[in-house]
Design a protein that fits this description.
Blueprint lengths: L1 H40 L11 H13 L2 H22 L2 H19 L17 H6 L12 H11 L6 H28 L16 H16 L15 H26 L1 H9 L8 H15 L7 H25 L1 H4 L4 H17 L3 H12 L3 H11 L4 H14 L5 H5 L7 H15 L4 H10 L3 H13 L6 H7 L5 H14 L5 H4 L8 H14 L5 H6 L6 H20 L1
Helix pairs in contact: 1-7, 2-25, 3-4, 4-9, 7-8, 8-9, 9-10, 9-12, 11-12, 14-15, 15-17, 16-17, 17-19, 19-21, 20-21, 21-23, 22-23, 23-25, 25-27
């Protein structure tokens, strides 16, 4: 008998592991394989992962050409319709489907092999309605990162950047809890024992949901570690994850209403002993439950409508707390006196000076910049540091602070041997001086030899719309280095698009795919008939993005010509 029971337990464990692994596989490995197939067959348009105005322009071309805004609004409407139906019809599967779809944008960020409009990256289209309003709206769930920030702060005290390790711990713990919960649930179902309340169910009434929540939390922490994610236009993960988690909690509450009706006192006794999701101290539990008791005047929801109200209110409260990190900055909501702020600046400067981990140092530099005017003097001092990375960070941030006293110190590093220092100094000078920086930009081209800094100078001239620098840009368009030529032509397209095509055409004949991808986007910007023959040649090109933009550009040029 004991042997038979042991074999049964082993079988259930194997089934639970198979189920859990299959689920995790479907979220990690299948997208990678799908992405490879999509990439090889070029069944969907691709999108580069870079940042910059030209990437933003290409993204807009995709969204407009494929009518993705309408798709996004329709998709988001259907998702919330599923959720509403789930709560009003007592069918938790509908609400779960809605929560699952809401999480897909988060997963789209994780699927590193996917471009914005390829494969599962396409799933993020449902968040375009929020994206259209503001990037920051999608960060209104940033309160969820508080546990992660606390853990990172602890590890930073030991000079250790633990992001990857923290992510893996969360994913590992989540997968373990999910598997264990599935196994015990199977034991209860196969044993026909009614309420599952053994093992893991003694410390969580919903261990599978808890495991899923913890696993996905690790996922959103891990996703940014991939450097090839789209950086500038990526859909934020915090709000989708918050929505998904709150919907799942609502599903748990609805299931408990059902279990109460089915098992009566047996289930009441069980939930009086076992925590809802995780064991927490009594005082903290009272604090967490206070808004609910205030709203429904009950210990817990007893109707689906009450569940919907509670989940909505808690979601709004968490989004409101997130405003601290989204729009205003903590110091502006909770003002600190100047002497205290100066002490904190001094402390940050000391920490940066002694820090060896570049990730932590970058984070502290960004924290220093939040002190606005108080940060200017120490950042200027860092420009004269012996550490190149400190100089780079200082040069980058001084332009954002808007203090013109930094202009001359920035000039002093324009001949720095490290390119990144020079580039950040150039960009900051342009931010601080505007058109007054044009002379120094043109002068810089006389002695600057690096392709990257020269490209930044050309782009800065375009940003200033400096028509008096046209001849300089023409000279740049004849540069031996293609990337520098491309930057010059991009600037020309901003200043005088009608006279840019002659300088763009050689780039439309480039053998470099990356050059071509930007060149066809510039052609779409200027919409000049002179580029038509060269764009038509690209319709048979083996890279989908180039074909796609070329085709859209041809249509746009013809439409413009017909209108004339």
């Amino acid at each position: 008998m004991k042997r038979s029971k042991l074999l049964q337990q082993l079988l259930l464990l194997v089934l639970a592991i198979i189920f859990s692994v299959a689920l995790m596989f479907s979220f990690v490995e299948l997208p990678r394989l799908l992405g490879m197939a999509i990439d090889q067959n070029m069944a969907f348009p691709g999108m580069d992962h870079g940042s910059g105005e030209i990437s933003a322009y290409k993204t807009e071309v995709y969204i407009s050409s494929l009518h993705l805004r309408w798709v996004g609004y329709a998709s988001l409407t259907l998702v919330f319709l599923f959720i509403i139906l789930g709560f009003t019809t007592k069918k938790t599967s509908w609400a779960w489907a809605g929560a699952f779809v809401i999480f897909l944008p988060v997963f789209g960020n994780f699927a590193m092999s996917m471009f914005f409009l390829a494969g599962l990256g396409m799933l993020r289209v449902g968040w375009l309605p929020f994206w259209d309003l503001s990037f920051q709206i999608l960060d209104l769930g940033n309160v969820i990162y508080v546990p992660y920030w606390i853990l990172m702060w602890i590890f930073e005290k030991f000079d250790y950047w633990a992001q990857a390790d923290i992510a893996w711990v969360f994913m590992g713990v989540g997968a373990f809890l999910f598997t264990w919960g599935v196994m015990v649930w199977m034991q209860s179902r196969f044993g026909q024992k009614g309420v599952a309340k053994l093992w893991i169910y003694r410390i969580s009434r919903h261990p599978q949901y808890l495991g899923w929540i913890i696993w996905t939390y690790g996922l959103i922490i891990y996703a940014p570690l991939y450097n090839d994610l789209k950086k500038s236009w990526g859909i934020g993960s915090s709000l989708p994850w918050l929505f998904m988690t709150m919907i799942i909690i609502g599903i748990c509450m609805m299931e408990e209403i059902h279990m109460k009706k089915k098992y009566g006192k047996e289930y009441d006794d069980y939930r009086d002993k076992a925590p809802f999701l995780i064991p927490i101290p009594y005082i903290l539990k009272r604090i967490i439950k206070f808004p609910m008791s205030l709203i429904i005047k009950k210990k817990r929801p007893e109707k689906n409508g009450e569940v919907a109200i509670v989940i909505t209110v808690y979601t709004i409260l968490l989004m409101a707390v997130s405003l601290i990190w989204v729009d205003f900055g903590q110091a502006k909501i909770f003002p600190i006196n100047e002497s205290k702020r100066q002490e904190e600046v001094t402390q940050l400067v000391a920490e940066i000076t002694g820090e060896t981990n570049w990730r932590i140092r970058d984070k502290k530099f960004n924290a220093l910049a939040k002190y606005d005017g108080l940060a200017v003097a120490p950042l200027i001092d860092f420009l004269q540091s012996d550490d190149n990375e400190n100089q780079e960070n200082a040069a980058r941030l001084l332009g954002d602070l808007g203090d013109t006293s930094a202009i001359m110190p920035l000039y002093s590093v324009l001949s720095h041997p490290w390119e990144d220092v020079r580039v950040n100094a150039i960009q900051s000078i342009v931010k601080l001086q505007g058109m007054k920086s044009l002379a120094v930009l043109i002068e810089g081209l006389q002695y600057e030899t690096g392709t990257y800094p020269r490209s930044v100078i050309y782009e800065s001239i375009g940003q200033l719309r400096a028509s008096e620098a046209w001849d300089v840009l023409v000279e740049g368009s004849l540069n031996d280095e293609e990337w520098a030529r491309l930057s010059a032509v991009k600037a020309m397209a901003k200043i005088d698009p009608g006279n840019t095509s002659a300088y763009l055409i050689p780039l439309l004949q480039s053998e470099n795919d990356w050059i071509l991808r930007d060149a066809v986007a510039v052609a779409h910007q200027i919409k000049d008939e002179a580029t038509l023959p060269y764009l038509e040649e690209l319709l048979g090109y083996d890279h989908y993005e180039i074909r796609f933009i070329a085709s859209e550009t041809i249509d746009a040029i013809k439409a413009t010509s017909a209108f004339k």
